[in-house]
Amino acid sequence: MAEPASHHILSVLVENRFGVLSRVAGLFARRGFNIVSLAVSPTQDERLSRMTIVVDAESTPLEQVTKQLNKLIPVIKILELSPAEAVERELMLVTVKATPEARSQITELAAIFEAKIDDVGHESMTIQVAGAPEQLDAMTDLLAPFGIVELQRTGRVALPRLVRRRTKLRAVSSPD
Q1: How far apart are CA 19 and CA 36, in angstroms?
Q2: Among residues 37, 57, 81, which one ends one of the domains?
Q3: H-helix or E-strand containing 22?
Q4: DSSP 68-129
Q5: Fewer CB within 10 Å: C terminus or N terminus of the chain?
Q6: pLDDT tens column, 128-161
Q7: In terms of residue numbers, what domain contains 99?
Q8: Strand bridging mode 157-160 / 86-97
Q9: 119: domain CATH number?
């Protein structure tokens, strides 16, 4: 399923320094831009961090956002990732009511989504599921009838899809 056109996914490479997150978030807040999702983590280079920022396109002209981000000294590189050209994932932990009669149904549902049951109590279960945002939405919709007790999502992380060359097949002649 394609990302709704009302969002932009920005992958921002920044210096891994104290205060960078607050400066970037402050920029969005001062300009009245709506952040839909924000995830930050170190990269393979300990001097850098990657921020994946999903912004509401209707309230945020993308060109204005990137110009403002580029003015921040700790920003190294900004990429806009279209959903078709990105691999994006999110993690969700959800605690759902689980009567003894419902446990097998919840377990089967978790298996369908390749989710992991992380904790089991007398009256509830906590499930961990990672996937595309649409998969997490679907899992949430299917768990809702059981009764969701608590739910936490990480926000999206995304990287550009890898470029692949098409391999040309050639005929191999067989020795006679």
Answers
A1: 21
A2: 81
A3: helix 20-31
A4: HHHTSTTEEEEEEE-GGGEEEEEEEEEEEE--TTTHHHHHHHHHHTT-EEEEE-SSEEEEEE
A5: C
A6: 999 998 999 999 999 999 999 999 999 899 988 8
A7: 87-160
A8: antiparallel
A9: 3.30.70.1150
